[in-house]
Amino acid sequence: MKSIEFIFISESSIIGGIETLMVRMANSVHRDGHNVSVFCPEGPVVSEFTPGIKWTKVSDGMALGITLESFKPEKGTEHVSIWTSHPFMIADAYRLQGIIWKKWRVTSNSISGIFIPAQFVVSNDLIGLIKNNIIMKLPPLGSIYFMSDAVRLSFVEKFGHSFEKWPVKKLTHNVETNNISWTPKNTNRLSIVSVGRLTPFKAYNFGAANIVKEIRDAGVDCEWHIWGEGKDLDLARAYAKTTGVGDFLQFHGTLPYREFASEVCKHSLFIGMGTAALEAASCGMPTVIALVNSKRECAGYLHEAPSDSIGEDVSHKYRKNVIDLLFNFTNLSPEQQQNIGSKCRTAISNRMNEKEGGVSADLQDGLNYPSSLLTALKMNTYTFTLQIWRRLTRIQRRNRNVKLTSRP
Q1: 373-406 vs 126-133: helix crossing angle, rounded to 10
Q2: CA 127 to CA 143: how far, in whole Å?
Q3: Domain with CATH 3.40.50.2000 in the chain
Q4: pLDDT at 122
Q5: Residues 6+ apart with CB under 8 A from 250
Q6: Who's near 347: CB < 8 A, 6+ residues apart?
Q7: What is the Cα 235 distance to its own chain's centre?
Q8: What does the alpha-carbon distance between residue 225 and residue 182 come to, in Å, rounded to a whole number?
Q9: What is the 3-state secondary structure (H, E, C) of 32-96?
Q10: What's the pLDDT at 163?
Q11: Which CATH superfamily is domain 4-173+359-403 in?
Q12: How far, in Å, are 175, 271, 309, 346 from residue 285 at the CA level?
């Protein structure tokens, strides 16, 4: 068998969807006997890697390219597979591929992932125009993958038909949670749980307070537990206090990834999107798919969500009111609730990779080096354009900071 070494590169080390995906993949290929190196900042996610995985601390995404120049493959390595957490890091990865080939004559490939299109919405200024109309059109085909057909369709609608050629790679199932299963709760309390970053497009975090209030006002004993960090955490906490449900809407901060399954299974049902929703459903838990930028609407339970959706916008006919769904759930028998959880668990087989050894194969797709002349020209064009965008972004950020510090 070819000796393959895997590199994982991330701009952050919080406990979020993209970061936990990195943990799953890194631990999986390491468990298969491969050498694994991770480059990311210091943070909660670092402790989630299994012993034996080599971690190198980096200060931020911009310094990543310089840091990676010191990378040296282990003796006997015949191929290096590079995974990056963000598509705009592909240029740095391609530069590393060139270094690996020129120094050690070792072939390599690089691959990156895209999840929710809402993360890529930018302003209509010069920087936004460059990003949307140039950078998002240029990345080499086959170097980026999507979590679902719905995500890819969203990008086709927003950025053009070139995205139709990019592959879909299903989220890898976490084998470490196989022995943890959800069971119906023998209580009248409706206990909701959510896990994920608190960002504007995950609007269900900010609609939770009013939903809990309405349900409790209707006579249902309801509580909602939200796990996760984010720039809007304090804002969400403050708003919850104004609604008077502070005791029944609790923000717990970071949930260690290794405790995810055992914690969420303590509750009645899960509300969320993306990787966290899939992991909750994999435990056989009733999982409600929230919608991007919507505080009170959902796509129903996971097995009802259309177009392989795990949070992406869906057509109006599939939208459901979260409160109506929750009221209906409280009227179900434990057997009926268990049946919903079982359907959610079955539905993940269409959305997750549960094949043994599938992770290693998936990670060996993408942009290969040495590459063809056409690919090299395309990558150089992309890298040059990306450098301009990064420089303009830094200038814009510096000017913004100057204005803030110069205020009287």
Answers
A1: 160
A2: 23
A3: 4-173+359-403, 175-353
A4: 54
A5: 223, 224, 225, 226
A6: 281, 302, 303
A7: 22
A8: 16
A9: CCCEEEEEECCCHHHHHCCCCCEEEECCCHHHHHHHHCCCCCCCCCCEEEEEECCHHHHHHHHHH
A10: 76
A11: Glycogen Phosphorylase B; (3.40.50.2000)
A12: 16, 10, 17, 11
Q: Cα–Cα distances in Å, from 205 out to 127, 153, 167, 225, 295?
A: 30, 25, 31, 10, 7
Enter the pTM of the model: 0.80
Site of tokens 């890898």? 172
Q: What is the dihedral of CA 58, 63, 68, 70, to 10 degrees?
A: -90
CA atoms of 210 and 196, how far apart (whole Å)? 19
- What's the CATH number of domain 175-353, 3.30.230.70, 3.40.50.2000, 3.30.40.10, 3.20.20.150? 3.40.50.2000
Determine how many CB atoms are found less than 10 A away from the CB of residue 173.
22
At 220 the pLDDT is: 95
Q: Which residues of the chain have pLDDT under 50?
A: 407
Whole-angstrom Cα distance, residue 111 to residue 368? 9
Cα distance between the two ends of the chain = 66
CA distance 222 to 333: 17
Q: Which two tokens stand for residue 108?
A: 């390599």
Lookup result for tokens 């919903």: 340
Identify the burial level of 301 via C-beta atoms within 10 angstroms of its C-beta, where 0-12 means exposed, 13-18 middle and 19 or more buried. buried
Q: What is the pLDDT of residue 351?
A: 74
Is residue 281 within a helix (H) or strand (E), and if so which, with residue range? Answer: helix 274-282
Judged by DSSP in three states, 229 sits in coil
Burial profile 316-339: b = 16 or more Cβ within 10 angstroms, e = fewer: eebebebbebbeebbeeeeeebbe
